[in-house]
Amino acid sequence: MSTSSIHSLLMLVDVHIPQSQSLKQKRxxxxxxxxxxxxxxxxxxxxxxxLDEWQRSQLSIAMVSNDRRYLQKQLALVxxxxxxxxxxxxxxxxxHWI
Length: 98
Fold this sequence. Notes:
It is a single chain. By secondary structure, the protein is α+β, with helices and mostly antiparallel strands. It has a single domain (7-97), classed as Alpha-Beta Plaits (2-Layer Sandwich). Helix content is 37%, strand content 36%. It contains two helices and four strands. It has a four-stranded antiparallel beta sheet with strand order 2-3-1-4, covered by helices on one side. The protein is elongated. The mean pLDDT is 95.
């Protein structure tokens, strides 16, 4: 029996949505971002914080792989993608290896 390692990465991303004037506008921006992250990075993504604030959100992004270097590359790509999204400003990104 071969032993393989499993690596899990959890990213917590706090974002500011400066143009949002309502929860409806915020949810539209966040839903689009969540859908793009899920599709592009095959990641589990959910809005997990600041649910009742108009201009702030926290996203949790989880990825699993047997290759830690792959996840590190994906982490860098996710960060780059988030910084290129015009509708948001990234306030903080935390990474937790599990």
